[in-house]
Amino acid sequence: MGESEAGPVSVETNPLLQWILVNGNRWVVSGVALVLVGLGFVGSGVVWADELVTLFTEGQVVQSILMALFSGVILLVSIAVSVNSIVLSQEITALGDQEEEIDETFSFRDSVREQTDADVSPVRPAEFLQVIFDAIRTNVQELHNSISNDNVALNSQAEIIKNDIISQVREVEDRLEKGAFGTSEVLFAGIQYDYSRQVYAIRQLRVEHEETLTDSQREKIDDLLTTLKYFTIGREYFKTLYFKRELANLSRGLLVISFPAIIFLAYAILSLRAGLLPEFSILGIPSIIWFVGFIFVVGMAPYTLFSAYVLRTATIAIKTLAAGPFILGSSDGSTRLSENNESK
């Protein structure tokens, strides 16, 4: 992965960032964000109690903020309905289209089973990745073993490719063994596998040594490229299914949380305008600050849930922008596997 993609803090190496963006339950991530918002209000109430009371009681600042939140929540509801409509429109297809899609799925599963010599092509993402990676490791090992040591350049290139593939496969398998059983965790583990440069390196090896390669070696190269292609197709298909599920969960979650938020915001706006809030203090913080803070947290709940889902889908999308053997985001434009991969 290029430096420009990873940024100053890598999602792959930062557990907290990875939990926020990918692994964490979206409702829990949203709840943590709301807790931080509430703590911010409490902290402000401790430091600037008198100033905030004056601000909240004089003028229409609070009412304006709550009205903006009220309108925004209603807008999010319309977004949720639109998103759900998009998901449903993709599922409502003619019988012939359904048959064609199912036939293509069965055909792909049969192809994977034949390529990997598996009894049955797995249906779960983690098991599918494991079978594919076993086949990739076997293919590259067979290719390396078939290449004669007499050709130093060819043998060196094959060694680099083999070491890079085995190293990356081991890293992904380690992530899967550490409990990546959820769809998002499995998908995120799979997208760490940088197959694009490997495809380029394998094709480059074939072009540069076309005259010296035997028919058996060319066949093993084709087997390895085919297995990598099946990995790409399977990953992209799982990603499509994952996005559909995420969009459906997002629209359902927004509808569930937005309705009580709208009702509460409406009552809160009416209560503030009618001056029905009793005056008291908790921990030295006036009741108006507690009340406004709680209203703000409730009003922000749909936004934090929406942001949590969008952050995860956007992270997955950014990591898989290139479809097939294309490379995006390389900081140095290099597509070759370097000698340094041999030491991994």
Give a written overview of the molecule.
The chain has 344 residues and is mainly α. It has one domain (3-92, 124-343). It contains 12 helices and 2 strands; from the N terminus they run αααααααααααββα. The chain has a two-stranded antiparallel ribbon with strand order 1-2. A hairpin with a 2-residue loop joins strand 1 and strand 2 (285-286). Helix 6 (95-116) packs across helix 11 (215-274), helix 8 packs antiparallel against helix 10 (195-208) and helix 9 (183-190) packs across helix 11. It starts with a helix and ends in a 25-residue tail after the last helix.
Helix-and-strand structural type? mainly alpha
What's the mean pLDDT score? 79
Q: Count all strands and give the number.
A: 2
Regarding quaternary structure, what we see is: single chain
Radius of gyration: 27 Å
Instruction: State the share of residues found in helices, binned by percent.
Output: over 70%
User: So what's the overall shape?
Assistant: elongated
Give the SSE string: HHHHHHHHHHHEEH
Low-confidence stretches: 1-8, 330-335, 338-344
- Main-sheet strand order equals 1-2
> Helical stretch count?
12
Count of domain modules = 1
Distance between the termini: 15 Å
- Proportion of strand residues: under 5%
Largest sheet geometry: 2 strands, antiparallel
Notable features of this structure?
single chain; mainly alpha; two-stranded antiparallel sheet; disordered C terminus
Write the layout of secondary structure elements.
Layout: H1 3-6, H2 15-23, H3 26-47, H4 49-57, H5 61-91, H6 95-116, H7 125-146, H8 152-177, H9 183-190, H10 195-208, H11 215-274, E1 281-282, E2 285-286, H12 287-319
Antiparallel strand pairs: 1-2
